[in-house]
Amino acid sequence: GAGKNAIMRAIIEQSKVVSQLATATTRPMRDDEQQGREHLFIGLEKFQNMIHNNELLEYQEVTSNRFYGIPRQSVVDSLTQSKVLIADIEVLGAQELAKAFPQHIIQIFVTVPGETAEEQLAVLEERMRQRGDGTNITERLERAKTLEFPYQTQCDYVVVNDELTHAI
């Protein structure tokens, strides 16, 4: 709900060198997404096989039955090919990626406007309701409050998306 995907898409469109790291997920594909571009959309069984085979650098169940993970080989291949990638990953994944490749990772936290956490949560809730993608809003807001908002202090940059053109 903070607008990170809109910001990422604009950066990728405007850049000749930046592309997106496709992460693995079990969530359904959205209308504006493409298999292998933003994510590798896979079923739960395949995701579990990737875990078992140690193919993921990290993985998390972000909301009920919605898993996300970073395919290890994708990151290694990108680094050996000197690619510049931007990734849509949650905070636990960002921590693991930064720990595994500290010289190659810049962490940018995208957030919503608001002077207090309560104001930010209200903006986030409104954006999620407008998007209407079936997200469990209560669960997402709790995660934002307890895990995501506190993580921004560990990032290299914080971008407040109060106006999309400025945020980009």
Defining traits:
168 residues, 4-stranded mixed beta sheet, single chain, alpha/beta
According to DSSP, the number of beta strands is 8
In round numbers, the mean pLDDT is 90
Major pleated sheet: 4 strands, mixed
What general outline do the C-alpha atoms trace? Answer: globular
Over the alpha carbons, how many angstroms does the gyration radius reach? 16 Å
Helix percentage range: 40-55%
Note poorly predicted spans: none
Element-by-element helix/strand order: HEEEHEEHEHEHHEH
Range of strand content:
15-25%
- Protein structure class: alpha/beta
- Sequence of strands across the biggest β-sheet: 3-2-5-4
Task: Walk me through the structure.
- With 168 residues, the chain is an alpha/beta fold.
- The chain is built from 7 helices and 8 strands, in the order αβββαββαβαβααβα.
- The protein has helices at residues 4-14, 44-52, 72-80, 91-100, 117-131, 137-151, 164-167; strands spanning 18-21, 23-25, 39-41, 56-63, 66-71, 84-87, 108-111, 157-160.
- Strands 3-2-5-4 form a 4-stranded mixed β-sheet, sandwiched between helices. A two-stranded parallel ribbon has the order 1-6.
- Helix 5 packs across helix 6 (137-151).
- The chain is globular.
